[in-house]
Amino acid sequence: MNSLNSFVDIRGGTYMFLTFFILLLVSLAFFFLLRNRLDGLNKVKDSESKNTHTNLTKKISILRWVWIISLIGFLLTGANNFFNSHNNEAIKSSHFHGMGYSTDGQRLIMAEHHGLMVYTSGRWSDGLGDNNDYMGFSTYDQGFYSSGHPPLDSNLKNPFGVIRSLDEGETIEPLAYYGQIDFHFLSVGYKSHTIYIYNPHSLEEMDEGLHYSTDEGKSWIRSEATGISGEIKSIAAHPEQSSIVVVGTVGGAYLSKDAGNSFERIIPDQQITGLSFSPQGILYAGTYSDGESSLMEINLSTIETKKLQIPVMIEDAVAFIAVNPMRDKEIALTTYNNQVYTSNDGGIAWSQIMEQ
């Protein structure tokens, strides 16, 4: 991974490194210059030379401490920059399976094949917990829900079914179908905590189709899901209203107001590449049509759709979208090629924070 912000993150440290380096060179130059003058005065015995000798000795003593402190600062900042650059290089992403902000809005959390990645204060780091292969990762106001698989050396059952974490992945709690089913398409209402999942294949444990739970996975209801054209590829549960859910297919986005029993198409004739509700209730949809990737913002009250300006994507598309729960103008998106961007002004301008 080459994060553009990796350079930005260490830039302040680089300035300090150069400052200490210049200060070290200047102090050493003056130190040896004054030492040479002092050596010349040692051969002269008059009183004026003695006074000059005393003053030079004091200045040399001060310069000695200056270059010693500069040397220490030079070494420490150099070591820090070296560590930071190698630390950023060590964080690799294989493929993202979801993203969302922490409940306090301070951290952007990415789920991928080998655990969680966290972006905060301009820096990437590994997330908490085991290197689980999270699928259907969905944040809510107390933590996140997900499915997926544990690492090979784990004692956890495989697959996860539906799990929950209240501490950003440090621990996980199995809720349903633990050791039975891996759900790739899962979404939870940010405040309602209603869980929607799509099971593409009929299994002994669960029928094929769209299902939802309003009691943290204890019981499940199968939705009729009429009115949808094409196989479901993404789900977005409304943050507050349990009966509202949106699904995406290769043919468009479909809205249901009756818990997934019937749907109407709200974005036609476009492949939906990603769907997400903001915690404030605005729907975001990544679309792809005629070789062009787009990000749409939809107000469900009016079905008013606004196309946001996004970075140019060549043979790529929006995969996941997240909105900060504390700052609704802060949006993050990731693409299928693992490019990650953030915007602080509602999608007008974007900054790239990861470049794969």
Commentary on this structure:
There is one protein chain. The chain is α+β, with helices and mostly antiparallel strands. The chain folds into two domains: 4-89; 91-354, Methylamine Dehydrogenase, Chain H, CATH 2.130.10. The protein is built from two helices and 24 strands. The strands form six sheets. Strands 1-2-3-4 form a four-stranded antiparallel β-sheet. A hairpin with a 2-residue loop joins β2 and β3 (115-120). α1 runs antiparallel to α2 (47-90). The relative contact order is 0.09.
Q: Could you outline the blueprint of secondary structure elements for this entry?
A:
Blueprint (H helix, E strand, L loop, with lengths): L3 H38 L5 H44 L5 E6 L6 E5 L2 E6 L2 E4 L6 E8 L2 E7 L12 E4 L7 E4 L8 E4 L6 E5 L9 E5 L7 E2 L11 E4 L7 E5 L2 E5 L7 E5 L2 E7 L5 E7 L2 E8 L4 E5 L9 E6 L7 E5 L4 E4 L7 E4 L2
Antiparallel strand pairs: 1-2, 2-3, 3-4, 5-6, 6-7, 7-8, 9-10, 10-11, 11-12, 13-14, 14-15, 15-16, 17-18, 18-19, 19-20, 21-22, 22-23, 23-24
Task: Put the structure in a nutshell.
This protein is of the alpha+beta class and 356 residues long. Helix content is 23%, strand content 35%.
